[in-house]
Amino acid sequence: xxxxxxxxxxxxxxxxVEALSDVSLTLAPGQRVALLGHNxxxxxxxxxxxxxLIPHDAGEVTVCGTxxxxxxxxxxxxxxxxxxxxxxxxxxxxxxxxxLRLRGEPALKAPGLLERxxxxxxxxxxxGTYSKGMRQRVGLAQALMGRPRLLVLDEPTSGLDPVSRRxxxxxxxxxxxAGTTILLSSHVLTEVEARTDHIxxxxxxxxxxxxxxxxxxxxxxxxIGLVVTPVEGQTDALAAALPDARxxxxxxxxxxxxxxxxxxxxxxxxxxxxxxxxxxxIPPSLEDIYSHFSQRDGQ
Length: 299
Ligand SMILES: Nc1ncnc2c1ncn2[C@@H]1O[C@H](COP(=O)(O)OP(=O)(O)OP(=O)(O)O)[C@@H](O)[C@H]1O
What we know:
Layout: E1 5-14, E2 17-27, E3 32-37, H1 43-51, E4 58-63, H2 71-74, E5 77-80, H3 92-102, H4 110-116, H5 132-143, E6 150-154, H6 162-177, E7 181-185, H7 189-195, E8 198-203, E9 206-211, H8 213-220, E10 224-230, H9 235-241, E11 246-247, E12 253-257, H10 259-270, E13 276-282, H11 286-296
Parallel strand pairs: 3-7, 3-8, 5-6, 6-7
Antiparallel strand pairs: 1-2, 1-4, 8-9, 10-12, 10-13, 11-12
Helix pairs in contact: 3-4, 8-11
The protein binds adenosine-5'-triphosphate (ATP).
């Protein structure tokens, strides 16, 4: 299967600053990929190179098999910037019709595009009356013209409330299922954790970690948490049987272990059967993993 995006040993310098050093990444159709990193890590620079907006100094980049910024690449890549601005006096439908005309496509497609992003009912309202989430959807409708194979989104959910975020990601999932590759940057790790298949962490222009969440979890080898809730009246007995456990104010017992120790510890705890009301396993979150790799890099 042809990769949607291949980046090999990409390097970009701005005068004295090395914004990207030796970064590689290959994305397949339908993959949902998060680009993470501190402010100034190089995320936007990487996106601009993929979009063909700025040249790179070394390495190779191909977008759908062609050079970034070429007519063939531009026809297959769409971009949604962090803050999309539309004319507030236009309705959603007028705005989309305008963009369709600019692309030389029939304006008749506007209602269908708005329906795809869940704005069918609001298409005749002025954009000035839209919420931020609705404006992002107009941006997405614009980005989806021409059925892109690669969708590049720069912090697409910043400023959206939790429900709008969830809806936005559900929409992205639909596009990914249909084969569109999604590359997005975000500082909101909790949403990325649940909604992407692959993660690239940049730090000071270098890729410090790349893989699925599970792969990064294994590589980081961070402790796994276990929360044991004893049946009423059994706390002392369980605490005595688990001397390494920390006792919390609510009576639960907290343990940590390595991945290798996990199954043995679970077997030990579940063997306590009737004394046990509940048992929760807490794997390291993406936030823990992100901190681990970033701190290792001195961030
Ligand atoms: N046009 C430019 N001229 C000079 N330096 C630049 C230019 N664009 C980016 N840089 C530098 O390159 C580095 C990477 O910047 P970039 O905007 O890619 O970071 P980012 O990860 O997108 O950050 P943020 O999360 O704040 O958006 C930074 O040190 C930045 O100052």
